[in-house]
Amino acid sequence: MDELNKINISISSWPGSGATTLALILANLTKRKYINLGNVFRYLGENMGFSNEGISRPEFDNYIENIIGTTIDNFVDYKLLNDNNLIVEADISVFRIGKHPKIFSIFLKATKEERIKRVLSDNRDDAIIALEKRDEILKQKYYELWHVDFFDEEFIQKKYNMLFDNSNMALNNEVKQIVLAFKEYLQYKSIPETYWTEIESKIDYYVDLYNKKGKSYLNELLEKENLGSNAKEIMLEITRQFPEDIETFSQSIKNLFLGINKKS
Questions:
Q1: How many percent of the chain have pLDDT more than 70?
Q2: CA 111 from chain center: how many Å?
Q3: Where is 87: in which H helix or E strand?
Q4: Against a cut of 0.70, is the pTM above it?
Q5: What residue ranges define each of the domains in the chain, with the CATH number in brackets?
Q6: DSSP string of 146-199?
Q7: 217 and 209 in contact (C-beta within 8 Å)?
Q8: Which of 72, 75, 31 is nearest to 224 (CA)?
Q9: I need a labelling partner for 141 at 20 to 30 A (CA). Which of 15, 117, 176, 199 fits?
Q10: Nearest to residue 85, comparing CAs of 196, 20, 22, 9?
Q11: Residue 74 to residues 77, 148, 242: CA-CA distances in angstroms?
Q12: Distance from C-alpha of 148 to C-alpha of 251, rounded to nearest angstrom
C-alpha cells in the first residue's frame, strides 16, 4: 500500500461547488490527513473582526490575498510534493504544479445557477451578492498573483487530472465517480481490489452521516484520528517553512502567526 499512500489528492473548486464536502467524505473514506487552507483564512478573518459569511467574506479575500496569498499557495505546493497520504483543499492548488505523478488532482465545478441555489439554502439575503463578489475577487486576485484564470475550463483541464461537473448530481454518485476515477488513475499500482471494495462499501455510510450531521461532525471524526484540518497547526508549519515570508506580513497578521508559534 506504500504506492497508494505516496499519492496525494488535491481538491479545488469554484465557490459553492462543494469541495469541502467532497474532501471531508474522501478523507474519512481513505483515512488521509485533511488540510483545508480555507480554515487559515477563516481563522485570520475571525481574529481580525471579519465575518465568514455574507459580503464580509469576499471583502476579506480581497484584503488578505495580497498579503498572504503567495505564501499559502507555495505552502500548498510544498505539501503536495513533499508529504504523503494527504487530501489538500485549496482554490488553485495545482495550477502552478500541473499534472504530476504524485498528485491526483480534482477540480469541481457547477453551473452558476446551481451554485446560487446551494448558497441560498443558507437562508442569507446577501448570499447571491456574496457569491458573485467572491467569484469576481478570486478571478482578479489569482490572475494578479499567478496569471491564472480561475474560471478558464480549458486551462483547468490542462492542469488537473479531473474537471468534474457536479451540477444536479446526488452526492453519493459524485463520490462514487471520484473514487472510480482515483482507482483508474492508480490502475498500474499494486493496490489490492479488497481496498477498493471496502472504500466503495462505505460511501453511502459517510454520505448519510454528512446529510444527517453535517461537515462539522465529519471533521470531528477526522480529528479523533489526528487527521483533521486545524488552522493553528497549519499556520505553525507555515511559520517554520516560510519564516522570511512571515516577516513581510502586516504587523497584525504577523502577530497572529507568531503568536501561535510562541504558544507551541
A1: 95
A2: 19
A3: strand 86-89
A4: yes
A5: 2-254 (3.40.50.300)
A6: H---TT-HHHHHHH-SEEEE-TT--HHHHHHHHHHHHHHHTTTS---HHHHHHH
A7: yes
A8: 31
A9: 117
A10: 9
A11: 5, 15, 9
A12: 29
